[in-house]
Structures are given as structure tokens and as C-alpha cells.
Amino acid sequence: MSALMIIQLLIVLAALYVGSRYGSLALGAISGIGLAILVFGFGLKPGTPPTDVIYIIIAAVTCAGTLQASGGMDWMIQIAEKMLRKHPDHITFLAPLVTFFLTVLVGTGHVVYTIMPIICDIALKKGIRPERPCGVASVASQVGITCSPIAAAVVAFVTIANSNGYMVTIPHVLMVTIPACLIGLMCAAAASYRRGKDLDKDPDFQKRIADPDQRAFIYGSNATTLDKVITKEAKASVFVFLGALLIIVMFAFCQMIKVNGETLAASMGIPKMNLIIQIIMLTAAACNIIFCKAQPKKAVAGAVWQSGMVAVVAIYGIAWLADTYFGNYMDQMKLMLTDVVSNYPWSIAFVFFLVSVLINSQGAVVVAMLPLAFELGIAGPVLLGVLPSVYGYFFIPNYPSDIATVNFDRSGTTVIGKYLLNHSFMMPGLISVIVSTVVGYLITMVLFPGFFAGFQA
């Protein structure tokens, strides 16, 4: 690796680091500074912006935004809250399942902001240390991204894999990630079940509630969505959204079924999945606006739409910067890494994880690093198996959902930690990602090697 390569790599890493410190739109915008330095300062050939993935995110976020604007998301949260309150003793296991499946359905982990205060409230009222369910539930809300048929990370994986000859479909990805991630999350929940001191034995907590004002603050609130009135239009929007997801999955299965040597989708002239997702999501968004009283202004003002647009800018800048750097040095990268990935192809999981720690976006990790992984000759089934490793941004607790969770926990048991890395999300995050990655790898490489390898073109 030449001195020039190292200098340029440091510029890339510096852009990612500074962007992560500012957060939000800065991730993509400051990547533009790095891109400008590489192109205009060092004369590198610009890479290609990830337009296909960006278009899909815009369509999916628009649909999810109209779901929120119509009140449909409130209904989904109410259903989840009723289940949690019905079984408060099992909150440490049920809370991550709720946040996981909400993310799977909606395609973004930011839905956790609505349900997390409820999880804290249930735990406190039951005398359970809130850190136990809150830490793993926040992790679960991000783990669900690689298990959602409309999430950027999943769609990007399928799109990039197909363009590199690994003809995998969305159902194939979910057949690996959903069981792998659920097993990982349940292991993390089990490890969290007795985590920390019980509230009645925690001297810090007992000291806080000895103050009447603090006690009133901790126990006085009653976070709930059960008092919200759910209209028939709100319920209809949920069925529109779920119907759209079902149609997308049905089209994806058409990409799997082969008739006379070609897929059913090809024989019927069905467009590629990236186009299908965009068409169906935009159509569902229109139905929510026309029939379910979703106000466009309210949709674009909602947290789901705004966080999705931030993700678009982040992926746009980060992926373009990474593609520019790695694209210009692909031959050198192959020379340096071929021996390692040939002997230990699963080691690419460490690369995915470390990059995710820096850029706080699973979709951006896939778009930026997956082409490099294919260029290095790593087999598609291996990359599918280690896909859960693209979630590493819990490691440094600066992600919005983690920070929000700390603030929602009025008991003060969910913490960042004095030494930054000793925070409440580290243990469940590491257990979940490690177990999920190992299980995913076993599914694709050991348990069903012929099945998943059979989609290699």
C-alpha cells in the first residue's frame, strides 16, 4: 500500500469521522468534501452514485411517511403496546421482538421513538430494571433493518449481488437474516434478563427516589398510546401498507421460480425488483393520500420521512466517496487482500462491522463495501451469511435511537457510561451481531450450502 493510498484513505476516514460527529445530513455532505479532495486534489476518477438504492429509499420512505400521517403507525404501536402490557413479566424478551418487527414492517428503526417510552414505563411499573429491556430493544430496532423487504440494506444487497452474478432475491435474503437475527436477539435478551442490580437493590436508584421530586419524575409519568383515537382511515392505511409489502414479496418469489430454464418473472416480462418496489411503494403512498386522508404536509413533517431523507443524503455521499476511492485502487486492494479472503472469506464481516462503526448506516455499508467484496472474489453465499455484521454503530453510542433511549429511561439505569464504551448497548449489541453473523453463515454455508449456492450465475 503506497503512501499516496494511505493519505487518500485517511482523507476518506476523516470525512466519515467528522460527518459522524456532526450527524444527520453532515454524514453525506462532509463526504462531499472528501470526494472533492480526491477528485480535484488528487485527480482520481469519480465513482458512480448509488442512484438505484436512493430511488428505492425515497419510494419506501414516502409510503411509510404517509402511513404515519394517516395514523396507521399509531394503530400498529397500540397493538404492540397492548401485547407488552398484557405480559409485563416478559418485557425483556418481548420488547426487542416488538421493535424488531416494527422495523421489519416499516423499513426504518426510527419507529422506536414511539414505543420506547412505553417499554420504560412498563418495566418501571413492574419493578424491572429498565436497562434490561431498553438496551436490547434499541439494538433490535436496528437489527431489523437487514430483515426488512423494503430497507435500503436488503434492497442494495440484492441489487449489487445480482449485478455481480449472484442472482439472489429478497426472500432468499430474509430466509437467512430473519432466523439468524432473531436467534441473536434472543441470546442478547437472555443475557440481559438479570443484567445489573434489581431496582430495590440498586443504591444509586434508591438514592434518587429518596428525593420526593425525583420519585415523582420517575414514577409520575404514564406513557401510553392507548388513549389515541384510531380512525377507520388509519386502519385502512395499515392494510394498504401491508398489502404493498405482500405484493412486493410475491413479485420477488416470481424471481425465484424457474420454468423451462428461466425465471417466472423473466417469462412474464416482469421488471426488475428495484423498479417493482418503487412502483408499488409510490402507488401505496398515493392510496394513503387519496383514500386514507394522509396529508402530504404532515407526511413530510413526520419523523419517518425526515429520517429517511437524511439516510438518502448519507448513503449518497458516503457510498459515492467510497466507490471513488476503492474503484481507483481495486487492483491494489485485490493484491493486498486476496490471500486473506481466499483462506478466510468470512473475515469480510470484520470489515463490514468496522465500517459501520464509522458511518452509522447499514445501507451505506452495503452500497460502499459490497462491490469491493465481490471484486475480491468472495462468494455470494458467504456475503449473504455475514450480512448481519453491517450493524456496528451501537459500538460508539452516538446514534439517535440509542441517545433517545437513554433519555426516555427516567430511572437512569440506561446509560452512556463514564468511559464512553461501557454503555448499556454494548453487551446486547455485541452478542446480537456476533450470534446473528455466525448463525447466518452457518445457514448459507453449512446447513443449506447447495440451496443458496444454487443462485450463483
Task: Provide an overview of this structure.
- A two-stranded antiparallel ribbon has the order 1-2.
- A hairpin with a 2-residue loop joins strand 1 (258-259) and strand 2.
- The chain contains 23 helices and 2 strands.
- The longest helix has 26 residues, at 303-328.
- The chain is mainly α and 457 residues long.
- Helix 8 (152-163) packs parallel to helix 19 (362-375) and helix 9 (170-192) crosses helix 22.
- It is globular, with a radius of gyration of 22 Å.
- Helices cover 72% and strands 1% of the residues.
Give a quick summary of the entry.
β1 (258-259) and β2 form a beta hairpin. A two-stranded antiparallel sheet has the order 1-2.
What are the SSEs and their pairings?
Layout: H1 3-22, H2 26-41, H3 51-70, H4 72-86, H5 91-106, H6 112-126, H7 131-143, H8 152-163, H9 170-192, H10 203-209, H11 212-220, H12 232-256, E1 258-259, E2 262-263, H13 264-268, H14 273-291, H15 296-301, H16 303-328, H17 330-343, H18 348-359, H19 362-375, H20 380-385, H21 400-408, H22 426-447, H23 449-453
Antiparallel strand pairs: 1-2
